[in-house]
Amino acid sequence: MYAFGSRGNTGPNFNLLLLIISQLGLHTVEGVWPLPQALASSAERYSLNPQAFDFAYGKRSAAQQGCSVLDAAFKRYFTLIFQDYTSGRWNTGLETFSQLVYQDDSGSYFVNKTEIDDFPRFQFRGILLDTSRHYLPVQAILKTLDAMAYSKFNVLHWHIVDDPSFPYQSYTFPDLSSKGAFHPVTHIYTQSEVRRVISFARLWGIRVLPEFDSPGHTKSWGKGQSNLLTPCYRGGTPSGTFGPINPVLPSTYQFMERLFKEVSSLFPDSYIHLGGDEVDFSCWRSNPTVRSFMQKMRFGVDFTKLQAFYMENIVNITSALNKTSVVWQDVFDYHKRRSSLSVVEVWREGCYLCEVRKVTKAGLRVILASPWYLDQAGPKHNWARYYSVWPLAFKGSEEQKKLVIGGEVCMWGEYVDATNLAPRLWPRASAAAERLWSDEKQTSSVAKAFPRLQDFRCMRGIQAEPLTIGHCQHEYLGV
After folding, report:
1. Is 278 part of the annotated catalytic residue set?
2. Is the pTM of this model over 0.85?
């Protein structure tokens, strides 16, 4: 019997002691990923019998019998650990332990006597999926959640809507998806499907953080909600085109309040992402009503002040719904009254650590995304560029560095749909996963990490790209 003791997914240390009877030979496992904070593996090898294998709650564990997340994990991992065992037994285990189990050439299962001390370095370890530029079927999202759990990611940042399409089906404003989605039936996410994703993610220990980006990136919104977007002008007359959300109308904020009330009731996470990036001011600048409002508010011709005015109103709406707002760094850069902000996501290229330093110096929390944009140009197989990132390598106090709560891998959808999502993400995203989970000093060598990542890439049947020439013991069978 094997006992597992835990005090939370991202909380204090947990100790994992594997003492399984029947010593046999020698072996080492390469593919433990992400690397635990401390792992001491003995040369002693012990056999595992699937028919007699079981798990029990540790006596000192805060989680005890009846914990739905752990009970579901116990049922899930048996087939992952014993891949060639086809009995109906369902008792199972957890991720790090499952990676330590291996088979010999005859198919027998073994594990080395191992002691592990483990906890995550950062509390926020996310993957961003963009379902506006290409619609991702629910099943593709669920498979991504599977793979995320294997690398110990714990946040799905769901960039659910954007300029190209509005696939989220709102009960309050049904025209948003019926007119703004690529297709009103086949390319939408019903609320029951959203709940399915949230429920599935919960059992993997993953939060679902929704993003409804505004005032820019909202062209699809205007198809189903009249008078929401700003009419653009040319030569003093309307051009027939529309720009960002109109920030000067009271009806705008009434609409946003009703929408976010619905979204907040559907998505239980305490965080909500409000976007706020890449706002094109040219349409606002062309609109006489907007310019008049600017003069009334004494903004002059500084449209960053108008954006800050809009975002402050949206932050206040979501704060009243007891949600912590996350915004892209543009909002911080343009916002003078930063006391209303909580969490800033740093995404721009260049000296991103300079931005991290500025944000933390202002006393705000940071999520780092800049170095982990997987859609950026570069060698397709160069996972090392994502591994060689040092999130805290900026000049600042220890208090500032504590405000860096984590980071995330961003998979934007311009050239990604369900056909290529998994090989684009994996195993490159796993490089970032280890950076966000593991001790930096123990994981500073790309050369030492390579054999572990190569071994890990073969696990779990994920359609991950190969790192080099070779083969997996269990090849991917989905094609």
Report:
1. yes
2. yes
